[in-house]
Each structure stands twice: as structure tokens, then as C-alpha cells.
Amino acid sequence: MARILIVGGYGAFGARIAERLGREDWLEIVIAGRTEAKAKEAAEALALQAAARIETAQLAAETTDAEQLGRLAPDIVINASGPFQHLGYGLARATIAAGAHYIDLADARAHVRDFHVLDCAAHHADVLAIAGASSVPALTTAVVDHFASRFARLRSVVYGISPGNSFDPGPATTASILNGLGRPFPVPFAGDTKTVYGWQGLCRRRLPELGHRFFGYCEVPDLDLFPARYPGVETVYFYAGVEVPLFHLSLWLLSWPCRFGLLRRPERLAEPLLWLKRRLSWLGSDRGGMFMTLEGTGPDEKEKRIDWCLLAGRGHGPYVPAIASVIVAKKLARGELETRGAMACQGLFSLAEFMTEVKDLDICAVTG
Fold first, then answer.
1. How many other CB atoms are found less than 10 A from the CB of residue 266?
2. How many helical (H) and strand (E) elements, i.e. helices and strands, does the chain have?
3. b/e string for 313-330 if b means 16 or more Cβ within 10 A?
4. How far apart are CA 145 and CA 129, in angstroms?
5. Which of 1, 158, 289, 306 sits 20 to 30 Å CA-CA off 63?
6. What does the pLDDT look like over 207-262, one tens digit per residue?
7. In what order do the strands lie in the sheet with 363-367?
8. Spatial contact of 106 and 131, defined as CB atoms under 8 Å apart
9. Which residue, among 177, 133, 152, 176, has the nearest Cα to 323 in the 3D structure?
10. Which band of pLDDT confidence, cut at 50, 70 and 90, is reported for residue 122?
């Protein structure tokens, strides 16, 4: 019986990971976090429907060491605590030192890009440590891998995510979003690099069944990982969007004083803005989506374009960032994944495996 410790196991994504893994009677799940009462409350609720054995632990990702983990004796540690921009690799190092596999849901560019610095330690411990088991780069890589063979040369990948307004991101995720407002970052463009600014590049995109939604530039690990993984890719853009136009345009407007240094700590607005969003949750819906547009040259040397969309309803969108860690954890627990070392979460599962895992949810894919 494999034992899985979920740090941040009662958070927005950690709770969904626990719920999915809790269905398996051959697993032991330990829900952990900074607040013992919250961990116990989540465990008690999950135990009412779970087939797995459920336990709790009190620990913080920033301070947990190998000795603490050793006492808990996990086979796998899933770090769903976030945000990862300033978290560092402390928990990953402690997990490796404790001889357990490590999985995190980071979408912070540098965190995931540089995670390979732990590769030697992970190989020495004979464990797998991965960063980015989330929508990006794990799912986005699975999508590109699925369609890449249809191109003689894939040149451009442009994609974005827009959750439904019913999703409650929580203070930490909201602060992370605000921290990116107006920040400059390089993107691959036409074989060179181009500087863009967080939540600018305002545009509208029509998603099947969802209609038009606003999007803006957002920094993700794929901006570094895709050109390295797919030779010939010259342009990579990632966009994030907010369903309610008023909210998205507010972020766009706030990005300008942030860009010019007039608003230096936008993350301080997280609590009041989240309070306002919660009061206005009725403005939006429980439907979200993700689009990916791949362009290049087909085997017939003609221009080729593939549009792929993932649509989620009934509030099931927040499961999407959680599913990659669920798939990888179950494969490790079953002994089906022999890869060892430290790396970004790329190529560890297929798009078909992802769609199989979400078949009981209101999540579907559309290819155009």
C-alpha cells in the first residue's frame, strides 16, 4: 500500500487531489498543511466517501525537513501549497533526502525551468522529483506531444486559460496573479525574443460554447521549455483570462501603474479584491476553458493549423491543474513509472491518459 503525503491538502487544488486519490483503496493519504484544524476538518469530510485510509499532519512547506518527513514515512510527497515564485526547493530537497518521490504543481517559470539542479540528488536517492505537474507545463506538453507528429515543422504555439468566475482562487493564488501585473518578461517570438508585460497584450478569443473572453500575457515555464523540447518552435505565447470582462479589464488597467513603478506591491490588494470577487460571483458562470493553437508546416509542405480546446463545466475546471499530479502519483505508486531524477513534468503521461482520468467530470476536448 503506497502512502502519499499531500502538502496543502485542504487547499483549492490539494483538496481535489486528495479527493481523486482517496478513491483508491490501495492508497494511504496524509492531508497536511500549516493549520492542523483545517487538515482534520478536510480529512473528516473526505473519509466519509474515500476508499483510501486518510490521516493528517501539521507541517509547512517552507520549514519541513527530511527528519519530519521520515517520521511520516511517505512514499510520495505532493506539494500543492504554492505559490511557488518564492518558495524555493526546500521541500523537494527534504523529500529526496527522505527517499520519497516528489511532485509539485508549480507554474512559476524559474522554479520549473531550473528544477533540474536537483537531478543528481534525485538519481542518487533513486527517486523521481518533478515540478510543474499542473495545466502548464504538464498538460500543455501532453497536448503538443499528441499533435506534433502531424507537423513536418511546428513553428508556433499560442494558448491560454480562462477559468469560470465561480472558481475561488484563494488569497495566495490571488496574490500570485497580482504580483505578475505589468512585470516584463521575455517570450520566444519569430526565432528571437520579445519583451511583453504581465496581463497586457489585451485581446479577445472565442472559445467553443463559452463565447468571447478577454486574455492577457502571462509568464509560464513553457516559454523556456517548449523551444528546447520542440526543435523549430520559434514563437510561444501564453495568455490568461478572467471570465467577467469587468474583472479582466480591471487587472489590465492595474497592470499599467505596476509596469511604470507607480504601484509597487499590487499583491497587497489580494484580500480586498478577492472579497469583492466573492461578493460578485453571480456575475459569471461555472464554465471555463483552455485553448491551444499550433501552427507550422504539414508533411505536404503546406501551412497547417490545429485548434484544440478543453472545456469544463459544473465548476469542474479547478480539477484540471490537479489531474497531472494524480496521474503521475498513481503511476509511481503502481510501479509503472521507472523514470528517476529531477525534471519538469513533461512526457510522463499522454493526452489520452489525461482524458481518461477526467472522463467522470464535465470536461471535454474539442479539436478544430
1. 22
2. 13, 16
3. bebbbbbbbbbbbbbbbb
4. 21
5. 1
6. 999 999 999 999 999 999 999 999 999 999 999 999 999 999 999 999 999 999 99
7. 203-207, 211-217, 235-240, 153-162, 288-297, 303-312, 363-367
8. yes
9. 133
10. very high
